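Q: My labmate handed me this sequence with no annotations at all. I'd like to see what the chain might look like in three dimensions before we decide whether it's worth expressing. Could you predict it?
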Amino acid sequence: MPNGSARILLVDDEQSIQTLLSYPLRKDGYHVTSALDGNEALRRFEEGRFDLVILDLMLPQMGGVEVCRQLRSRSQVPIIMLTAKGSETDKVAGLEVGADDYITKPFSMREFRSRVKAALRRSRMGGETSDDGSIECEGLTIDFDRRMVTLNDEEVRVTYVEFEILGALARSPGRVLTREILLEHVWGDSDYRDPRTVDVHIRHLREKLEQDPKEPDYLFTVRGVGYRFRE
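A: Here is what I predict for the chain of 231 residues:
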């Protein structure tokens, strides 16, 4: 996806933020569509095709979390959440409803542009097949060619990030992967990212795959180190 063909929906109610972020995006060759509130964001999304959504958490009329939830229910488009808050609850609020990444204000333009490029790169890769075939383990099948996960012959809907984390762990059964390794595998680097982001996605995977998320059969925590897939 050359920069010139990437379309970005930028959702923020502050005009100063719109101006600040639109300029470097357009300078990098992206097509930027702006929305100032949640309802407008959903309308804009329905009207066009977008490769990335940059979504502020605090929006009038409809909050960013609800917008993210509705977008995720109809599309797997990459979503980066923007938040000015610093608490753990607010940081992961978007991740809980399907966002791929988040950035806490204030942030540098270098960090912002890095996140955008990484999200678009992941989006491109998500449409590619691989020659890894599939992995099967106790009713769980990970099909890398079709990027599909099934559990007891029933398809399980997972996001791009969830699939990549699950695939990385399943390719090395029994091996402990640190949060930093998983961040680098999914996002290309661990710069600017809170390792606890991985914890949120692991929790989502357990909720979707495990009969009892507190007593997992597939994804195990190695306290103080990281995670491993069952042998």
